[in-house]
Amino acid sequence: MELIQRPRRLRGSEVLRKMVRETRMDKSSLIYPLFVKEGTGIEEEIPSMEGQYRYSIDRLPYELERLSKAGVGSIMLFGIPEHKDEVGSGAYAEDGIVQTALREAKKQFPDLYYITDVCMCEYTSHGHCGVLCGHDVENDATLELLAKTALSHVEAGADMVAPSDMMDGRVRAIRECLDSHGHKNTPIMSYAVKYASAFYGPFRDAAGSAPSFGDRKSYQMDFHNRREGMKEALTDIEEGADIIMVKPAMSYLDIISEVSKATNVPVAAYSVSGEYAMVKAAAKMGWIDEERIICEMAVGTYRAGAQIYITYFAKELAKFMDEGRIG
């Protein structure tokens, strides 16, 4: 048989396969989510997320050092307060857990890049992402508190803020607040296309942020919808978002692909707690090759169009890149 086209020609050696690789990754694109908790001497493993921990501020530097040595230069902080109330006042308190953690982290590891999650759910007694009116989340009343929270994070040292609440108009409210206080150059990474997903279960365990009643389907997106994701992404860009995030990653690669083609800003994808927990559980049972699965999931996300990957496997991926097993 005389074949002109032989795609296998370019698969014959490791050197050649790497030479023609279409999707390339770099450690600088990794972001590691970190949970910081009020108290002292705390480094407690999260039961549903083996290998992930909640840290008190005095223990946080040890993990920051490990990340720095691994070559993971960007982290996303999530705060777990000791006290909660109806309006989530701990989210925007000057001495709040994230604000205090930022000041300490910046002193000890100033070269790391600090992104903060901006939301109310960890701080409200009811676990919803905003102010309540009865059993409904009041969108417009929440915007002021989100803007206050973002400003307090930036003034404490955050390099970037990432609103995850899914309130309409929150990007504009935060942008205007930051700009009016002299923070015109602080970027916003918007959780723009955030679906109401069952993949968030372990995170709610980690952060203690499960709603005490109802669900979040009135503000997080219906996972049946594709075009709505485009609308959310484009709206947030119009309001001043510098980076657009799609969340979760693994089951939404089609959305990542479409958002990356439809927009002209960087696209981030969050490989969420449920994805992490499934890999860890299956690997523990010996059903999968954990290292290969971690790499395949990451490459799939970048191949779909993401330039930034938020993942609990950031340290492992950085190691695999150093070893040439992925990249």
Tell me what the structure shows.
With 327 residues, the protein is α/β, with parallel strands linked by helices. The chain has 11 helices and 12 strands. The protein has helices at 14-19, 60-70, 97-108, 139-156, 170-180, 201-207, 227-239, 253-262, 273-284, 290-304, 314-322, and strands spanning 30-37, 43-46, 49-56, 74-80, 113-118, 132-133, 136-137, 160-163, 189-194, 243-247, 267-271, 308-311. Strands 1, 2, 3, 4, 5, 8, 9, 10, 11 and 12 form a 10-stranded mixed beta sheet that branches. α8 links the parallel β10 (243-247) and β11. α3 (97-108) runs parallel beside α4 and α7 packs across α8. The chain is globular, with a radius of gyration of 20 Å. It starts with 13 loop residues before the first helix and ends in a 5-residue tail after the last helix. 44% of the residues are buried. The mean pLDDT is 92.
Q: Low-confidence parts, pLDDT < 50 over ≥5 residues?
A: none
Largest sheet: 10 strands, mixed
Structural class: alpha/beta
Strand content: 15-25%
Summarize model confidence as the mean pLDDT.
92
Q: How many distinct helices?
A: 11
Distance between the termini: 36 Å
